[in-house]
Write a structure and sequence with these properties.
Number of strands: 0
CATH architecture: Orthogonal Bundle
Number of domains: 1
Number of helices: 3
CATH class: Mainly Alpha
């Protein structure tokens, strides 16, 4: 397969993630949009690793997956604690949580 197809798919995924981060106010959609952007970067790492025949990109995919798992665990823990106090997942309602 051609590298340009992977570039286009990754660009589309990243664009959808950026639009989700900038427009949606739901915290769950925000986390999913961030995960979509990280996965688009992973797709590029794998595509370039295959294109160049180098396994360094695959090592970076592993680190990005670890980062995404940590972000999901910490982010959802914070979201659950905030939801218990406010019973809402709208990001604009959490302005009083800042210190």
């Amino acid at each position: 397969m051609d590298l340009s197809l992977f570039l286009f798919i990754s660009l589309a995924m990243f664009t959808i993630g950026i639009i989700g981060v900038l427009t949606k106010r739901n915290a769950l959609i925000l986390f999913l949009s961030i995960e979509l952007m990280l996965n688009s970067a992973n797709l590029l790492f794998v595509a370039f690793a295959r294109y160049w025949g180098n396994s360094i990109g695959l090592a970076w995919v592993f680190f990005v997956l670890v980062l995404a798992a940590a972000e999901a665990a910490v982010g959802l823990a914070i979201l659950i604690n905030a939801f218990r106090s406010r019973e809402v997942v709208d990001i604009d309602q959490y302005n009083s949580l800042r210190g």
